[in-house]
Amino acid sequence: MNPANLYALGAIALWASLAALGVSLAHVPPFLLTGLALLVGSLIALPLSRFDLRQWRLPASTLALGVYGLFGYHLLFFIALRFAPPVQANLVNYLWPLGIVVMAPLFLPGVSLTAKHLLAALLGFAGAALAILGRSTDGAAAVWAWGYLPAAGSAFIWASYSLLTQRVQSFPTAAIGSFALVSGVLSLLCHALLEPAVTLSGRDWGLILLLGLGPLGGAFFLWDAALKRGDARQIGVLSFITPLLSTVILLWLSREPPSLSVAMAACMIVTAAVLATWKPRPRSAD
Hints:
This protein has 286 residues and is mainly α. It is globular. Helix 3 (30-42) runs antiparallel to helix 10 (176-194), helix 5 crosses helix 10 and helix 7 (96-107) packs antiparallel against helix 8 (115-133). It has 14 helices and no strands. It has one domain (3-277).
């Protein structure tokens, strides 16, 4: 398999643990949780850069793009979860893989949207929707809530951030530490202004450490490495595996048997990923 797709799958596997860790830390205010986890995640850049802080230096415009992606995405997503049904808000948020596939020709020169990628994206999104709504008892009866708007905004931010990182001046993957550091500080400022103070237990700190090393840290570095080396359209379709894995992990932790909808979603998402990444072998000359 293409090394870029392996990096992407690594990020996807880490992001799949976000929901389970979030459930375990649901009592921690979201901006405090995000800020602490991002600060932990930023430390990954130290060994990655061999403790050379010069690799953290970025043009102001590139740093602004990173903060736009990491901080802006989480800000709108947490607002969405507060003002819309969480399951439906999460579904709207998972428009971002589709956004990467569809918007790639708009952001990246020389990239075109083929019928194969469009079909794979739609199939993957349908599978993601089935994986999420299949666990909801009232998914079919969803009603409008204004929180869906920030959920859609978070999807746009992450898709556009992922694509725009390929348009700015090249920077080392270790510089993602700067994005996480500044975004973490902004999140903690939001916590100080908007959320009540809380006392964290030793277990809380351990889970926050895992969160920072995984879905809110290590995943960002893997994601950047994938985008620097691979096809954004293929990576976007592969990302639809995230909600499926997340749902399976939640089912396992709650000891619920997998439903038919999850099995169908798995088939749809795997088919979409294979379709997006499949390249016919050139015919050998007779």
